[in-house]
Design brief:
single chain, alpha/beta
């Protein structure tokens, strides 16, 4: 039996175990402290300590309007529950994993072909990492492009799949979904092979490969028992470990790592994808991907990943969490940051409202989209209450305080998971302070994306610039 073995050995295991326990205790203690701070914050700013002095009808009207402070609460609570249930503490990857024997792993990168240098760098990095871990006959890199790319024609490990200009899927899939659907027949992957979806700039390391392999072997073993179907896997994506072009947008993306560790990990651990799926770091059996397909129409093409997830769920396929990390870049500019959120917002609404998906599969997404749509009212009412202060009932103050503090904590969790003092050196604590201080600005930025998307919904597929 051939194995992949980690290059480092576990030494001083008792001490490592003690350190892990201390980390876990500190983690839950921090969660308790954050919760207490949220409750205290809500009490201090409630009418107990800051009673209203306006006319009763004004106080009542303002209380009703301040219910907008609760719109972000469901998002915060689901994330914190996930983070409490599954602590966001980095774990050691499997030290030893069986090599692939009767299947291959295809690493699939989809691009329009506008960033050739970035694609070349991503392919080179992936190849170098894979060559250190896996035999060449067990893996392949596929670059799916709308435009020709000058890849090494003699490289058997890398294949260019060029999507024809006149290719028109039957149901009208567009953008990335169109390219992915074409690849289902153009790829050399066999039904038993596995596909790992990557974005143009996605990077991974040996630990990620071992964790993905462990997931694949576990799914293959599980499906040999009874009539079980392989799960679709996804892990955590962090931003800022590689090149950082804009620290403001990178810190604004810290919450996405916390979202993966909390809300998304919780849903995947339940075998579900109620909130959708990211377009990269998807690990899926090729036969399942071919069965589901990506040709679900134009409305399903803006956030094709989320539609694919709910479609798979409606067909009875399950999901699971892969305890591993991949690395991507944040948008280089605030404009790209807002444009990215606008696409997500518009596309997710189309998924949530799609009559082609059963209501039972999308009702939770629909509720969260409604909260997201109304979330911009929260910072607006905060500003209004500063300019025109009124009393806040305790029943509103406490959950609002918890929501606000939990939101800040999510950004901090994402930062702590992504960065280390070894990586950032003297910049670590200044950036951590900036992370907390900028949370209100991030909130207004996210709100701006929602408002502009509501006023002028997008039907396009805006691609964020990732090539420096």
């Amino acid at each position: 039996m051939n194995f992949i073995t980690a290059p480092t050995r576990l030494e001083r295991q008792p001490r490592a175990t003690t350190r892990a326990r201390r980390s876990l205790v500190s983690y839950y203690l921090a969660l308790v402290v954050v919760t207490v701070i949220g409750i205290t914050y809500g009490l201090i700013f409630s009418e107990i300590f800051m009673p209203g002095d306006k006319a009763p009808w004004i106080e009542t009207t303002m209380t009703i309007l301040k219910i907008a402070w609760l719109f972000p609460l469901p998002y915060a609570l689901v994330n914190v529950y996930g983070l409490a249930r599954y602590p966001a503490i980095p774990r050691r990857p499997p030290l030893q994993v069986n090599l692939p024997t009767d299947f291959r792993i295809f690493f699939r990168i989809v691009t329009r072909g506008h960033n050739p240098r970035l694609i070349a760098e991503t392919v080179a990095d992936a190849r170098a990492t894979l060559e250190q871990i896996l035999p060449p006959e067990t893996w392949r890199i596929e670059v799916v492009s709308d435009s020709y790319l000058d890849l090494d024609a003699d490289d058997d490990q890398v294949a260019l799949i060029l999507v024809p200009e006149d290719y028109a899927p039957e149901n009208g899939a567009r953008f990335k979904a169109r390219a992915l659907h074409y690849t289902l027949t153009a790829s050399s992957a066999d039904p038993q092979d596995w596909i790992v979806h990557l974005d143009e700039e996605t990077r991974f390391d040996g630990a990620t490969i071992r964790s993905m392999l462990a997931f694949i072997h576990e799914e293959r073993a599980r499906t040999r028992v009874g009539d079980a179907l392989p799960h679709i896997g996804q892990g955590v994506i962090v931003y800022g470990r590689c090149q950082v072009k804009n620290w403001f947008t990178t810190l604004a993306d810290s919450v996405r790592a916390a979202d993966d560790l909390g809300r998304f990990r919780w849903q995947f651990s339940q075998g579900k994808a109620w909130f959708g799926l990211h377009g990269s770091f998807i690990v899926i059996n090729n036969q399942i991907e071919q069965f589901i397909g990506f040709d679900h129409g134009p409305d399903a093409s803006i956030t094709e990943d989320s539609y694919f997830a709910l479609s798979a769920q409606s067909l009875g396929f399950g999901f699971d969490f892969i305890d591993a990390v991949m690395y991507e870049k944040s948008p280089f500019s605030v404009r790209d940051f807002v444009k990215q959120r606008q696409r997500w917002f518009a596309g997710m609404w189309l998924v949530a409202l799609s009559h082609n998906l059963p209501v039972k599969e999308r009702w939770l997404l629909l509720f969260f989209m409604l909260m997201w749509t109304l979330s911009w009212l929260c910072p607006v009412m905060l500003v209004v209450n500063v300019i025109f202060p009124t009393g806040t009932p305790v029943w509103l103050g406490i959950p609002s305080g918890i929501s606000a503090i939990y939101t800040v904590w999510l950004y901090v969790v994402g930062f702590l998971f992504t960065f280390s003092r070894q990586q950032l050196g003297w910049r670590y604590f200044p950036l951590l302070i900036a992370q907390v201080a900028c949370v209100p600005l991030f909130g207004f930025l996210e709100s701006a994306a929602v408002i502009t998307s509501v006023l002028k919904p997008t039907r396009g597929f805006y691609i964020v610039q990732k090539e420096a």
